[in-house]
Known about the structure:
The protein has 145 residues and is an alpha+beta fold. The protein has helices spanning 4-18, 26-37, 74-81, 132-142; strands at residues 41-50, 53-61, 69-70, 85-87, 105-113, 116-124. Strands 3-2-1-6-5-4 form a 6-stranded antiparallel β-sheet, with helices on both faces.
Amino acid sequence: MIQSNAKEKKYQKSIQLIDTFDAKDKIDEIIKILYEEFEDWIFCGFYIKKGDHLEIANYLSKNIPCSPIKMNGVCGQSIIKNKILIIGDVDKFKGHIVCDENSKSEIAIPFVKNDKKYVFDIDSRNLNDFDIIDEKYLKKIIERI
């Protein structure tokens, strides 16, 4: 796990890089920059809501993500509740959808862009890897999309 100060510096560095890209490249670059910067992350991507399920839009991972997925998992519940969900132990989340057995913790951030609902989803190989620092900076990053 990254210490708070080191984590903030990683996000600040990432945001500086993200700000150099044009709008058309932003989503792919956000995923790439963050996935490379945070070595314990095993999935970094965006799902889009389509009807009663979510479909993968863009991502980086060594594994192919689950898609489509039902709304009962972390991502779906994040959209339904319109709330950022920080899950310290995914095995304790009722309805968790297991796409990668190495996933131990997760953060899901819902947002709307061009009248479409999305969720920015990140999984880590470590328990309790996400906190209010992640929430703060990931919200700032989403504002740049």
